Amino acid sequence: MKKREDEKFNAYDIPLDDFFHFALSVDCVVFGFDNKDLKILLIERGVEPMKDLWALPGDLVRLEEGIEVSANNILKKLTGVNNIYLKQVHTFGKVDRHPLGRVITTAFYALVDISKIEISPSSWASQTKWYKVSELPQLAFDHRQIISTCINQLERDAKLQPIGFELLPKKFPLGLFQELYEAIYQTTLDKSNFRKKVKSLNILNQLDEFEKNVSHRPGKLYQFDKKRYNELKEKGFLFEIGV
Amino acid sequence: MKKREDEKFNAYDIPLDDFFHFALSVDCVVFGFDNKDLKILLIERGVEPMKDLWALPGDLVRLEEGIEVSANNILKKLTGVNNIYLKQVHTFGKVDRHPLGRVITTAFYALVDISKIEISPSSWASQTKWYKVSELPQLAFDHRQIISTCINQLERDAKLQPIGFELLPKKFPLGLFQELYEAIYQTTLDKSNFRKKVKSLNILNQLDEFEKNVSHRPGKLYQFDKKRYNELKEKGFLFEIGV
DNA sequence: TCAAAAGTGTTTCCAATACACCCATGG
DNA sequence: CCATGGGTGTATTGGAAACACTTTTGA
């Protein structure tokens, strides 16, 4: 890092060094889908400030650490899994949003297959819990707003990208797929029409396997065809699913 | 601002003060529409680093200044106009993206009516110029990437929101409106169908005025009906214009 | 034999698309 | 009188939406 003590900069003629006193944090809105509900993973903070309040998993970024790397590290700590699907959504920078100083935070959302993930509380989290998006507790900082922004973004993204696959097991019946979209859009969809539409997208592989241990006719299992999806995406193809 | 010299924080057990050495900047991708082309406003940097290179208008954020406020101030300086349409797009935080230290930057795009805006170079800009998006010069920092991200975002937004109105004069003929969307989507659209679609959205007021001084049949002028737009938006109405 | 969800087929209807044509103005 | 873009009408078609129906499993 260069010396910069007596340089001037910027339209205000303020010593350059005065600008280098921000902290940057990363907060992750981790979405999961479970039992017909869209859920978010929250932690109970184990450190000050706002100790014991529910909050988003997040952390301060170190000076030599990239933002995306930092977000990935948080999820690695929490789930043990690397390279979870992450999308940067928005940066929140209100002057007084953090009691310790000028901390701006960049919010990401993450999508995980809730059935495959084991959560392990870490140093800054004394507890973790999946909350339904409709039943969130009181939250620290401006995390309520962050969540709301991320939910909106997820809804918009879900309409144009086959994002849902990240939230489901590798193999899944179409009924589950539909329930997921019903949870995201908070609505109900016509079964027949939903199936026709999804199949017409040509990004699903039908398997020769069936659901097990269900008290109704077992559904065929499907798999996301990522290769085919990327081919179509190249061509500018749109994937409108649901509403 | 609180004392924090000897507190500890965060999973890494690093002194808290070590985290407060980021700088934050704001960069604006200002879009305008002129003569059938989508254009971006660039400045020639009048200050180090990267002096004399073309770059996005932007500045370091002061510690006591909000991010959005900072973006607004930049545009105010540049155009003399307050409350220009601004949208936060993405935050870029690569560790080595800035030669003076760890500077992360939040990118916004702005939409202006190019015919109503007078640009005045300010302290950090020795020159300003509107460039076609297809003919950009060499750019400072990672500004090429920032622009590319903002163009993508604009394209996506234009499909779902009547963003185009910000780029046009208050009163405009439908032909101009169509040309704008053709510039954004880089395609041509069928005149008759475009008109039908736009009119069916019910967010345009037809005026009793006509274009002047054109060497062809003058077109009727239209105005954006913001009130009606907001009503429909409340109801979750979608505004797909063009492709 | 009942509940519950899988899975399919049909009809209706609207909106996207393609395309042809006429109109008004300046030069 | 022609080039230019404004402005309108119509036929076709594909897909969205609504809804009825059959199938397969566990309990």
Describe the SSE topology.
The structure is a homodimer of 243-residue chains.
Chain A: E1 8-9, E2 14-15, E3 23-34, E4 37-45, E5 54-55, E6 58-60, H1 67-79, E7 85-92, E8 103-111, E9 125-132, H2 143-160, E10 171-173, H3 174-185, H4 191-200, E11 204-210, E12 220-224, H5 226-234
Parallel strand pairs in A: 3-8
Antiparallel strand pairs in A: 1-2, 3-4, 3-6, 4-5, 4-9, 7-8, 10-12, 11-12
The first copy, chain A, binds a DNA duplex (27 and 27 nucleotides) through helix 4.
Task: Summarize the structure in short.
Chain A has 243 residues and is α+β, with helices and mostly antiparallel strands. The first copy, chain A, is 26% helix and 29% strand.
Written as H for each helix and E for each strand, in order along the chain, the element string of chain A is EEEEEEHEEEHEHHEEH
Q: For this structure, what is the CATH homologous superfamily of the largest domain in chain A?
A: Nucleoside Triphosphate Pyrophosphohydrolase
Helix content of chain A: 25-40%
Name the structural class of chain A.
alpha+beta
What do the pLDDT scores of chain A average to?
90
> For the report, how would you describe the main beta sheet of chain A?
7 strands, mixed
Top CATH class of the largest domain in chain A: Alpha Beta
What is the CA-atom radius of gyration of chain A, in angstroms?
Answer: 21 Å
Please give the number of β-strands of chain A: 12
Report how far apart the termini of chain A are: 51 Å
- Which stretches of chain A are poorly predicted, pLDDT < 50 over at least 5 residues? 1-9
CATH topology description of the largest domain in chain A: Nucleoside Triphosphate Pyrophosphohydrolase
Envelope shape of chain A: elongated
State the assembly state of the protein chains: homodimer
CATH architecture level-2 label of the largest domain in chain A:
Alpha-Beta Complex
Instruction: Report the largest inter-chain contact.
Output: A-B, 46 and 46 residues
